[in-house]
Hints:
Layout: H1 8-25, E1 29-36, E2 47-58, E3 67-70, H2 71-75, E4 80-90, E5 98-103, E6 111-117, E7 120-126, E8 147-154, E9 157-169, E10 176-184, E11 195-198, H3 203-213, H4 217-223
Antiparallel strand pairs: 1-2, 1-11, 2-4, 3-6, 4-5, 6-7, 8-9, 9-10
Helix pairs in contact: 1-3
Amino acid sequence: MKNTATSPVLSWLRPAMLLLAVFTGSTNAAVYSGIWDPAFGSTFPNLGWRGTANYFVPDTCVPTGTVDVDNSLDCGGAAIVTSAQVELYDTTDSGQATISTLLFNPASLGVGTLRFVSGELTQLTTTLSNLVDPGEDLSAFGVSPTTEFALDFNLNGVFLFWQDCGSSEYYLAAHYTTTCASGYNDEEAFPPHFVITRVPEPGTLALACLALAGLSPRVRRALLPRR
C-alpha cells in the first residue's frame, strides 16, 4: 500500500522555499499590474468588462530607455502573464455589481513584445487566451448561451474577443453543421483605458506573509528574528 502521508520535512520545505524565493527574487524581477474598465460596445449593449492582469518580467529585460523588447530573443521567454481576469457588469447599474467573472489561463497568454517608455512597461503583446464560458445568463446584453470570451493584448491595449458557435440543422437532413460568429469589443466607440503600473517592492512582503503562514509554528519561530 502506497504511503501518501506528507513527511514532516516536506510539510514546511515547500513554503520555506517560497519564502526564500520571495526575498531573493524580489531584487532581480519586476512585477506589473494592468487594469482596464471599458464598455463592450454595440455587439453587447450595456455590458462592461473591467479587468486586471499581472505580469512577471526579469529585471534583465527592463531597459532604462524607450524600446520594444522581444520576449523570446531578449528575455529567453522569461516574461510571463501570471494572472488575468475580466468582470462583466451592467453599465447602467449604478452599483456596477459583477455579473460574471472570467478567469483566463495565464499560460495561454504567451508574451511576445514588451513596450517600455522611459523604463516603464506601457504595453505588451500576447497570444489570444483560452476561451471562457461566462456561465451566467447574459441574454439581457444580447449574449447567447453559446458565446465564449478570450483575452488579447497588443501594442494598442487590451481587447476582449468573443466567439459564438451554434449548431444549425440542414433542411430535411439528419445531420448538423456548426457555424461560428466572432469579433472584438468596439475599441473606437469605447476605447479601453489600459494602465500598467509596477508593483512597489513592499508588495513582495505580502507574498512573504503568505509563505510564512504556510509554515508550522515551530518553523516560523526558527525563521523569524529573535528579540
